[in-house]
Amino acid sequence: MPDLTIEKLTSRLNEAQRLSQAVMESEKSLDSFRRQRTRFIRHFVGPYYGHDHGETTPWRQPLNLIYSLAATLEPALAMQNLRASITTTDQQLRPFANDMKAVLDYTLDRIGAHKSSRVAIRDAFYGLGITKTGWDGTSALPFSDPISLDDYVFDRRAQERKKGSYSFEGHRFRVYYEDLMDSGELDDKARQKVNILFEGQWERNRDDKAKHIAFGKTAYGEDAFRPEVELVELYIPHRDAIVWLPGNLGITENFLRDRPWYGEESGPYDILGYAWAPDNYMPVALMGVIFDLYLLENQVANKVARQAASQKDLIVVDAPSPDNADIIRKASDGDVIQAAGLKATVLSLGGANEDGYRAVGWFQDWLSRIAGNTDLIGGMVANSKTLGQDQMLMGNASVRINDMRNAVEQHARAIVKKVAWYIWNDNDFKADLTRDEGALRNIPVKWRPFDRPGDITDFDFNIGVYARINDSPEQRAERLAAWVQRYVLPLAPLQAQQGSRVNMDVLMNLAGRELDLAEINDLWEEAAPLESPAPVQAPTGVESESAPAGGAPRGGTVPSPIEALAQPAPV
Asked: What's the confidence (pLDDT) of residue 301?
């Protein structure tokens, strides 16, 4: 039986060279996805954006429905902030879970994780949203950065992104030459290879990347103000390693750098897509689904516009009275003209066909339907005759939007878990801050290495529900009012019995801020708190009646919700 070891099968090339060939195959496979993504983005920005604009560009479309769709869906999916939710089944670990949540929220804010999430949400409209999460040893903080599909590479043989089903994943990146050479990341042999790579370096692959739309292709090698080198970083899951290859993959001899992966077990990358084709790694681009209809609608709209522009009203005058024609031409609206022997006829030519207007409306209606009733979601137009029908349509549209939100939340949850891994495991990460819990304010939180009760597996990391909402101050004020009516007022007596109450000053200031009422503080003034009314005592010698279940003794009083809010909390 032949010896079919990996060394025998691949003895011609070493691991770095085989991986370089796989990356080149990946980039060829991704080329069509990248070109279509660039095309969609060109139509999104329109003909007047960037260096290559003009009157005759192919992406000159008067009805920019690509922009309209993106501008409607992105606010509906994006998060204003990214907040963690940490739970544990161990009662003794719950106070520590609250401390860790405060540290995790602080870290997510500091590294701008919600911004990276929003870029991924936007990128997924045109193809694939990608983020990379890792550890920055210089700042002693995690990072979460967006990765462009133009730079992303993966194992083209993979049908799904699950550990064990793909052999590599990574991206191209640039680093300043002087920083790389001074970083200590490379040995002498790798430094020599970088010098060869650096000399006269320009971008070696496609000219039509999305980043070229604004300013065109630029030099980044020795002619740049701060010269840069392009490298390829790859995560190899089967041996949990991060390796570097030269940007010019054809000159690969060995890895420029080969280090163990330091991070959560799923690796550094997370991807976001809204619709997935069976047995395929790449999702379906939302803009690709509606693109043909978008072009067809603009084709008809342009035809209607040409017809409207060619419309003419001509005044035809018979030959015997040529002077009258000039009188008519010079007359203003409402003028009375007296001309002997005037014989004139108004002749109307051209004009837009009514069928063209109906076709444009039909295309618009179908585009909105295919995209999930975006007109209704964006609040631009009612698609039906009654409020009830609109509410039904909004409910149906919400099904699709909620499915997209679920994808966004899964992507954000993966980022939160990776950041949590770093703040738990890294010995350089420290934090001093405070948190609030119920009526308690400014509880100190001191986060230090090795001060960890339990294990990270004892905690479940999620994103807070309040991270999912991106709405207006008016909507937040409505939610605040609903919360007061549904929870605060009914539970106020129970709160008073337990020794707590709502801080009315904070509540009113919050409502005033959301409603943009600068005079809210002028409506309140300091006053002595009302004393609780004394209970009525039964007469001497008369036995007190038993109290009904859940209430006060007969002859006593139970404060109303409003009274419970007004009275001082029991001590």
From this structure: 86
CB-CB contact of 134 with 143 (8 Å): yes
CA dist 571 and 565 (Å) reads 15
Q: Using 50, 70 and 90 to split pLDDT, how confident is the model at 117?
A: very high
Q: Are 272 and 124 in contact (CB under 8 A)?
A: yes
Residue 216 Ramachandran class (φ > 0 left, ψ -120 to 50 alpha, else beta)? left
Domain count, the chain: 2
Counted residue by residue, the chain has a size of 571
| Each residue's pLDDT tens digit, 309-356 | 888 776 666 655 667 667 766 777 666 666 666 566 676 767 778 888
Q: Quick check: is 279 in a domain?
A: no
Domain enclosing residue 484, as ranges: 476-527+556-571
Give this prediction's pTM. 0.75
- 185: tokens are 């990341």
Q: Which of 299, 331, 349 is the last residue of a domain?
A: 349
Residue carrying the six token digits 């089903």:
165
CA 370-375-377 angle, to 5 degrees, is: 95
Please check whether residue 316 lies inside any domain of the structure: yes
- Single residue among 349, 374, 402 that ends a domain in this structure: 349
Q: Residues of the chain with pLDDT > 90: what percent?
A: 29
Residue-wise pLDDT for 21-55, tens only, equals 999 999 999 999 999 999 999 999 988 887 665 55
Q: Looking at the domain assignment, is residue 162 inside a domain?
A: no
Give the contacts of 70 (CB within 8 A, at least 6 positions apart).
Answer: 44, 122, 125, 287
DSSP 414-431: HHHHHHHHHHHH-TT--E
Report if residue 438 sits inside a domain.
no
